[in-house]
Design goal:
The protein is mostly helical and 256 residues long. The protein contains 12 helices and 2 strands. The protein has a two-stranded antiparallel ribbon. It is globular and about 55 Å long.
């Protein structure tokens, strides 16, 4: 996908609505993006993360560690700093730190998210097994300035649009149907929404979030790395760091 988030998540996060007690949606979302976080790291890791073995050598450990950070403090800090965005009610997602799913559910969800990334990329990137299978490598259109679009590349941009719309749609369903209250309890959600954000915490959060992203974008060309993916990787790391710094420790209740 042209953008790792929220397109990849849109194709898999709906599983949470179908199997709410078995699916760890946080793990799904993180694992669906994680294969693309390696492009600014070593060449070997960037290659392996895009193969099936990458689910085990990269996706699983990154997802498990990241989910632990999200539930420890990051969710509390991140969603306190974001606006509610109307019907999305993003501040309610601070409740993610209230309880952790079973470890096995996190592991299975991480594997599903990683697999969904591999499958989507297979049909939306030239000369991968899916594109070869369906013969999607032929030129579909040649545009001035932007150049040639193969059929796979057209699917890539179409998938980005549909996946992003799907992700927002799932968030709207979760908010409008009161799913967080159903999964975590209405008292926990109401408590999560009751937070005062100080000016100091806002300054700290946005500084820790934005500065590394700017630095990554400026430094990447000097290191012969993609500025786009350097920004993506820096964003992932810095938002976890920023949320953890200003957030509060979540509950240690591990029951479902």
């Amino acid at each position: 996908m042209p953008v790792t988030f929220p397109a990849h998540q849109g194709f898999i996060v709906g599983a949470k609505l179908r199997w709410p007690k078995r699916v760890d949606a946080t793990a799904l979302c993180i694992s669906a993006a994680s294969p693309d976080l390696t492009y600014t790291l070593t060449t070997w890791l960037a290659i392996q993360s895009q193969r099936w073995v990458g689910i085990f050598v990269w996706v699983l450990p990154v997802t498990i560690i990241s989910c632990s950070i999200v539930r420890w403090r990051a969710a509390s800090g991140i969603f306190a700093q974001l606006p509610d965005f109307g019907l999305l009610r993003l501040r309610s997602f601070r409740v993610l730190g209230h309880r952790s799913p079973r470890t096995i559910d996190t592991i299975v969800s991480a594997m599903l998210g990683g697999a969904s990334h591999m499958i989507a990329d297979a049909f939306t990137h030239d000369f991968r097994w899916g594109a070869n299978l369906l013969n999607l490598n032929d030129t579909f259109i040649n545009l001035p300035v932007v150049g040639e679009f193969t059929e796979a590349r057209v699917l890539q941009y179409l998938g980005h649009s549909l996946g992003s719309i799907g992700f927002v749609g799932v968030l709207l369903v979760i908010a409008s149907k009161g799913k967080l209250a159903e999964w975590y309890g209405e008292t926990a959600v109401n408590k999560a929404r009751q937070v005062d954000v100080s000016p100091v915490s806002r300054i700290v959060f946005w500084s820790v979030l934005v500065v590394p992203i700017i630095v990554a974008g400026l430094v990447a060309p000097q290191l012969e790395r993609s500025s786009l993916f350097a920004v993506v990787t820096a964003s992932f790391v810095s938002i976890l760091a920023a949320g953890s710094i200003v957030g509060e420790s979540g509950s240690t209740d591990l029951t479902n």
